[in-house]
Amino acid sequence: MSLAPHIVPLPGPAADFAAGLRGNLPVLHTERCILRPPVLEDAPHWIAILVADEEGHLGGPHDEAGAFTEFAATAGLWLLRGHGLWTVAERDDPDAVLGFVLIGFEPGDREPELGWLFLPGARGRGLAAEAAAAAKSHALGSLGVTGLVSYIDPTNAPSRRLAERLGARLDGTIADPRSGAEAEVWRHAPPGGAR
């Protein structure tokens, strides 16, 4: 597969600096997955998910340029907020990308969001639940985030089921500021906390 020039890493001091920054970000392990900081080579996987938009992701549909901008912005949250995007890969093969989980905070969000996007071949195997549970635990524990929500398109039945599986409850709706579409707000209870 031929990559666009902006997705091809350039070797040298800047790439080494970026690797050093990534080395300071948390890596989480689950039974079957590793949640690692994103690298530029992960962008085509993110783009493939957002452009196809088979599950009805908020803010979509996206073109390739818009999807790359979303990838860069979400990865950049680590520098701005101390949380952001993890690439979810096979535990035994960190280059085998399954999808992504994130603790995000985008324009229009009222509080930090637990989000997930997975490639079609990784869906229906419980991997998103496993990875999202690890991200949720890390955010509410180590990162000290006091609350999390998931903003879900009402037509995205798999994401609604996953939010329920993670212990979230439906807590109203908001309008997506980019598209005006309605989004459900699913509230995640903190560990040991009241709903």
Task: Please give the structural blueprint.
Layout: H1 13-22, E1 28-29, E2 33-36, H2 43-52, H3 64-81, E3 85-90, E4 93-104, E5 113-118, H4 127-140, E6 148-152, H5 157-165, E7 169-175, E8 182-188
Antiparallel strand pairs: 1-2, 2-3, 3-4, 4-5, 6-8, 7-8
Helix pairs in contact: 2-3
Written description of the protein model:
The chain has 195 residues and is α+β, with helices and mostly antiparallel strands. The chain has a single domain, classed as 3-Layer(aba) Sandwich (Aminopeptidase). 31% of the residues lie in helices and 25% in strands. It has helices at residues 13-22, 43-52, 64-81, 127-140, 157-165, and strands at residues 28-29, 33-36, 85-90, 93-104, 113-118, 148-152, 169-175, 182-188. The strands form two sheets. The chain has a five-stranded antiparallel β-sheet with strand order 1-2-3-4-5, sandwiched between helices. Strands 6-8-7 form a three-stranded antiparallel β-sheet. A hairpin with a 2-residue loop joins strand 3 and strand 4. The longest helix is centred in the middle third of the chain and has 18 residues, at 64-81. It is globular and about 50 Å long. The N and C termini lie far apart (47 Å). 36% of the residues are buried. The model has no long low-confidence stretch (mean pLDDT 88).
The chain-level structural class is: alpha+beta
Domain count: 1
Computed Rg: 16 Å
Mean pLDDT: 88
Largest beta sheet: what is the strand line-up? 1-2-3-4-5
Number of strands: 8
One letter per element, helices H and strands E, the order comes to HEEHHEEEHEHEE
Query: What level of helicity do the residues show?
Result: 25-40%
- Supply the CATH architecture: 3-Layer(aba) Sandwich
Shape: globular
CATH superfamily, called what? Gcn5-related N-acetyltransferase (GNAT)
Distance between the termini: 47 Å
Output the CATH class name. Answer: Alpha Beta
Quote the CATH topology.
Aminopeptidase
In terms of DSSP E residues, the strand content is: 25-35%
